[in-house]
Amino acid sequence: MRFLPLDKLINLHDGYRRAFKIDQLEILLLQEAGKVWAVSSRCPHQEQSLIDAEIIDEQLLCPRHHFAFELANDGVQVDGLCASLKVFATAYEGNEIGILLP
Ligand code: FES
User: Fold this and answer.
1) What is the pLDDT at residue 102?
2) Domain holding 48: CATH number?
3) Where is the Rieske domain (predicted)?
4) Domain count, the chain
């Protein structure tokens, strides 16, 4: 696995949202209720940007049609209405957070 650094740990806080475009990957790093998640920055339903998505009880809500995705369950859409949201494995190295890529 390859560590891809995204941001410094000191920058994280509840409500943090930051989008990254690295090669072909569009990644959204976010923190809510003390938990950090890295997901695809576009909704798998109709490609809506998720930069303004809410997270409630570890479910990410797309701002467009309000589909809910279970972050702790591989991004599965709660009602089975579309594909899962891509959730990346996060990792820490030194004072940075990033994702693990195969
Ligand atoms: S675009 Fe996200 S739920 Fe439709």
Assistant:
1) 86
2) 2.102.10.10
3) 4-99
4) 1
The CB of 49 under 6 Å from ligand 1? The reply is no
Expressed in angstroms and rounded, the spacing between residue 11 Cα and the centre of ligand 1 is 28
14, 31 in Cβ contact below 8 A?
Answer: yes
Please indicate whether residue 65, judged by its CB atom, sits closer than 6 Å to ligand 1: yes
How far, in Å, CA of 77 to CA of 22, rounded? 25
Structural domain that includes position 30:
2-101
Cα(9) to centroid of ligand 1, in Å? 30
Residue 53 tokens read as: 């998505």
pLDDT in tens, 55-92: 999 999 999 999 999 999 999 999 999 999 999 999 99
**Amino acid at position 48, single letter:** Q
- Residue 47 falls in which region: left (phi positive, over 0), alpha (psi -120 to 50) or beta: left
